[in-house]
Each structure stands twice: as structure tokens, then as C-alpha cells.
Amino acid sequence: MKYKLLPVYLLLLLVVLEGCSSGKKAYERGDYYTAVLKSVNRLRKNPDHKKSGETLRKSYPMALQTLEQKIQHIQTANDPYKWKKALNIYGQINQMYEEIIHAPGALAIIPTPRNYYKAVDEVRNKAAEESYQAGRSLLAQNTREAAKEAFFHFAEVERLVPGYKDVEDQIAEAEFMATLKVVVEQIPVPGRYSLSGNFFQEQIEAFLHSQYKGSHFVRFYTPAEARNEDLRIIDQYLQIQFDDFVVGQTHLSERIESVSRDSVKVGEVDLPDGGKAPVYGTVKAKIKTYRKEVASKGLLSMRIVDANNDAVLLNRKFPGEFIWFSEWSSFNGDERALSREQLARCELREALPPHPQDLFIELTKPIFGQLTSSVRDFYSRY
């Protein structure tokens, strides 16, 4: 490679990159495992790369020795998760083996890399037993937090050895114990708005089920679901009801606007030669604009109550408002004084407001956004 024409700083950069890609730097700081992986990777691209070959020749025996010593130390230590740690180190040795045998340039330098695949099967079972016993001990504490930890231990068992003992049952038990069980109590909207109220409540239930679907540790139940599942343990109640709402308050207003336009032809005059000349002047008109507003407002309350002691954990109120309106105009005077927009508005007629059920649904939309955001914030801690 010809470096002499390159700037000094670029030459230095290339030298540094050369060392890093060959694994030499990792070897010099005692990170033999990384040195092996880097040098093998370089040899895979360039089997004749001398620096990488030399780094691999020196670093592989050191990496193997270091990792085997770690395994021996771990196996004699009084560590409750020693087999899991040993399994990870065996994995590193086996990874070096796989990298070398799939790189001809590296295999030429290390023709007989070592692997521990036979040992891994035995160690994997011991690691699974470690996590299994840890999960059982945590479950015996009979607390949500301990059950949550137990769940992850049992999930690790299933990952290591699928179907190990009764791990599937243990996962289900740990998940149930760790899950915060919340019964959602929604007070029905009475009277003529019950249909829209039901729609709003169904939206809330759909949000709670979809948002937390797949969450291991929070589950929402309707009262019917709690009864059907014979739910004996309830942690919290989520209580939702409208404190007040008014639908269809109508307000009619009007405003009068005077408009004019200059240089408009308003007539003609006779000329001495018998011809006619246009006469320009100012034309005027008065526009009366009507605005009809139909306002709907509501206030929703949400309480989260501890089922064990009736303590109120959260109490929030969410206002909502929707204002429908219709505007139309009429005018007196010369229509030439009006703009196109003003003329178009004068062609409009009073529109009928939406059905009260639809107005109720509209006022609940901002309430729904506030409610769902508050629920997310509160239950994110679980």
C-alpha cells in the first residue's frame, strides 16, 4: 500500500484503523476474546492479512486459557447463578470455534479450535435448575414484586430448556401473582344519552384491553369478566362516571357590517355629440350575519381505589366541550359592494345541528384523550 502521497494525519488514521481491524489493540490491552473475533473477521475478508494472522496466533491460546480459568473459578464459587455464568463463557468459547472454522484464513492458523458443545448441554440443564429454584423461592414470598422476578426466572428456564419440569405452570402462576388486577366500574349514562354513553364506555374498555394486551403485570376486568373468572383477588377499582353534562345549549347571535366599493359604474350621461359616458361612484350595502352555536359540555370523574383498604390512589376530573355552529348571511343594498365570499355566504341557509346523541359523542372525544393519558401515566409504574 502506497502511503507516501497521503497527508500525515490520514496516514496515522489508516495505521490506527489497521491495528483496530486486526485486533492488535484488543490483544495489547488483554482483551484476548475480542482480539480473536476481530482478527478472524479480518482474515475472513483477507486470508493473507499478516497482522491479523499473527494476532490470532497469539490471542487464541490466551483467550481459551482465560475463559477456561474463569469457568473453573465459577464452578467452585458459592454463586447461586454460577452455571448460568459458566454457560455464557462456554458460549464465548464455542463462538470462537464457529468463527474460526468458517474463516479459511483463520483455520489455517488455528487448525483445531476447541469447542464445548457436549459440556453445554449438561451446564444448560444446571443453569435451568438454578433459575427454576430461584423462581420457586421468590414465589414463596407471596408478593407481587417477588412474583414479577419469579416470572422472569421461569421465562429464562423455558428459554434454556423448553418444557423443563412444570415450568409452564410456574410461569402462569407467577404471572397471575405478579399481575395487578383492576376491575373497571363505569356508571351508565342515564336517559336519552344512554346509547352514546354506552359507545363511550365501549371505547374505554377497548382501550384498556388493547393497550395492556400482552402486558404481563396489569390486567383490566369488567365486572362481568371478574364474575365469570371467579376472580378472588382484586387489587384496585377503576371508577369512571360523568359528574355532569349538558347537550345542545343553543345561542343565536347576529352582527351587521356596512360595506362599500368605489369606482363602480352607477349610470351614464349624455354627451353633446350624442354619445354617452359612464358615471362612476360608490356602491353600498349592509350585511347581516347570523351565527347559531350549539354547545355541549361534560365533566368526567375517574378514581382509582385500593381494593384492600378503600384508599383513593388517584382522583382526576376531565372536562370536555364541543361547539357546533352554523353561519349564514343576508344583505340590503347594492350586491356589487359585496366580495365573492360575502355573496357566497348570503346564499347559505341555516343548517340543522347534529342529533343530540352525536353531540354527546363529540364532547366525549377530548375527555377520552385526557382519560387514556392519565391511565397510561398511572399504570406505567406497574
Under CATH at level 1, the class of the largest domain stands as Alpha Beta
CATH architecture of the largest domain: 2-Layer Sandwich
The CATH topology of the largest domain turns out to be Double Stranded RNA Binding Domain
What is the makeup of the main sheet?
Answer: 5 strands, mixed
Shape: elongated
Explain what the structure shows.
The structure is a single chain. The protein is built from 13 helices and five strands. The radius of gyration is 39 Å and the shape is elongated. About 50% of the residues lie in helices and about 25% in strands. Helix 3 packs parallel to helix 5 and helix 4 (about 50-75) packs antiparallel against helix 5. It has helices at about 10-20, 25-30, 30-45, 50-75, 80-100, 105-110, 115-140, 145-160, 165-180, 195-210, 225-230, 340-345, 355-380; strands spanning about 180-185, 220, 235-270, 275-305, 310-335. It folds into three domains: about 15-115, no CATH class; about 140-180, no CATH class; about 195-255 and about 290-380, Double Stranded RNA Binding Domain, CATH 3.30.160. It starts with 7 loop residues before the first helix and ends with a helix. It has about 375 residues and is of the alpha/beta class. Strands 2-1-3-4-5 form a five-stranded mixed β-sheet.
